[in-house]
Task: structure prediction
Amino acid sequence: MNSETESSSSDITPSFGGLRVVAFESRMAAEVATMIRRRGGVAIIAPAMREVPLENNHAALDFAERLLGGEFEVVVFMTGVGTRALFAAMETRHQRPALVTALAAITTVARGPKPIRAMRDLGIEPSIVVPEPNTWRELLSALAAKVELKGKRVAVQEYGVSNHELTAGLEARGARVTIVPVYRWTLPADRRPLRAALNAIAAGAADVAIFTSSNQVTNVIQLAEAEGIGDSVKRGFARMAVGSIGPVCSEQIRAYGLGVDFEPEHSKLGHLIKEAAALATLILIAKRADAGRIEAVESPSPRRAASSNAPRSLLTDHPMMKACRREATPYTPVWLMRQAGRYMPEYRRVREQHEFLEMCKRPELSAEVTVTAVERLKVDAAIIFADILLPLIPMEVGLHFEKGDGPVIDRPVRTEADLERIPAVDVAALGFVGDAIKLVHRALAATTPLIGFAGAPFTLASYLIEGGSSRQYQATKTFMYTQPETWHRLMELLARVTADYLKMQIAAGADIVQIFDSWVGSLGPDDYRRFVLPHTASVIAAIPADVPVIHFGTVTGNLLELMREAGGDVIGLDWRVNLAEAWARLNYSVAVQGNLDPIALFADIPEIRARARAILDQADGRPGHIFNLGHGILPETPAEHVIALVDAVHEMSAR
Ligand code: CP3
Result:
């Protein structure tokens, strides 16, 4: 086994759980079959190509003559196998050291890790190494950055299909391009396995497709069309989870009008199969539910339309949903703010590979960490992995997250002119959150409600105005006190965007929404009433009545009645108030959520249990209490303490 397959052999979670996985790989067919089976998949191995070294490779020999004659200034090596094959052909006539010396005198480009390795094995150090994801685009810009291409003679080693974009891009910069084809590819001699796989795909009898080279894509589609089943194979792929080894392969898949559902972080077989196992079930649930919904829209059958609403109605009796309505529950439901976060090793593993905003933008990653948290903690609600600051992305204020410093906004909003510069926001730009919700909602549909969320206008405004996190909210309050009209216009804008954003999340499948007004406790009650309440109220009023709203803030002991006035079925409490007293102040007219101090989770488990007990005692078994922390879990919290808390709440509240 080589290094590409080793990574998966020591670790067999996640699992395919019996899904039927079609792989088109030829050279590594046996290894791929083993990897799929070890992860609990049914392997359908359908080699889609055969590599044929060109007999009497005239192009390679001609290239060698010209290279030795000093006719090229640049040589591009596209693939590892091709580089080695080119040398094998050239070395039938020439000595390797002469070829290597000729290459050392000019610019050599390695498109990716495989040609780099092949070149080094042959004794050539590439002068330019193309950065990831190693497509023709990166190749062209890396080369153009180092070499003035005008008038240069460039040879491109090619393997299989020609890359017209690369050739065109080089020529557009004035280079003269010579293609050196080394290998060609064809259909395998024995096409029976590929035909059988295509029939299975057309018949809907396969779940996952794994493409490991762009040439496979062409062969698969061409054979399907030759067999007269092109359209049904394409429809079959649309219902499957389709994985691609990397961007070049994905481009080819998309060129045939097919979708790509995932690409591994590293373009390696082991990673691809592992990600396929991790994501396939979620992707399939989402795709098939979407397909069902599309049919329901197209068909006037009322029975279908009703059943498409079934998942939500199944959850109406979930303890979490009942508690939002202040109905009696068999135990106190519990979930925890920031339950998917850095305290959790599973989260850190994903986070090591991806920037935080990238995680939010990739539905499959966001869905994965959301669902993992629910499964690990056995909590009674999922909260979609996202961030309250995401709506600032379409506002084009330069949002980014700096290591250690949290969010930074490059162009804060401090004046009327700054406000005017914010473009009209279409929440469709945040469609990735909706896509993630669809994945999670369907993965958890009948078991656990899913909370969508957004920042309240005040808390969002504080980030926009301060340009990041703040202690005193000096700029925010100064804005409010000195430019009250502009303040209200900003808040109206934020309220509109927030309402649209929450409605989009609900349409995607969020069962509950939470509004985070995390920093509103910095205001006195008069300012809250005048500058905040009307705007938060307008957001909450926009939410459909059958979707519970949780209205959360911290340091809000002085604002609870006003927050209730702004709206919400559930009011969030932090640990600075006594839950019994706060709820009584609200006349038990709303449900409450809270309120363990997150730092209590650093105490030992008996102490955590005692504190959970005290909060349950304050709630006194009254319907309408959702157990939570008073604010989010801190990154350093021991994960086992979090699990112990959830267990303790379930156990101690059982009625
Ligand atoms: O599990 C969940 O609760 C869902 C995910 C969630 C995140 N942010 C993920 C996140 C939720 C609900 C939020 C809300 C959020 N984001 C709030 C309101 C809640 C609160 O804490 O008061 C606020 C103020 C933000 C803004 C924000 N996002 C800050 C200030 C930071 C940096 C501080 C930090 O904890 O690192 C973030 C980043 C952020 N949002 C992380 C996570 C998991 C950490 C990102 C990382 O892994 O580096």
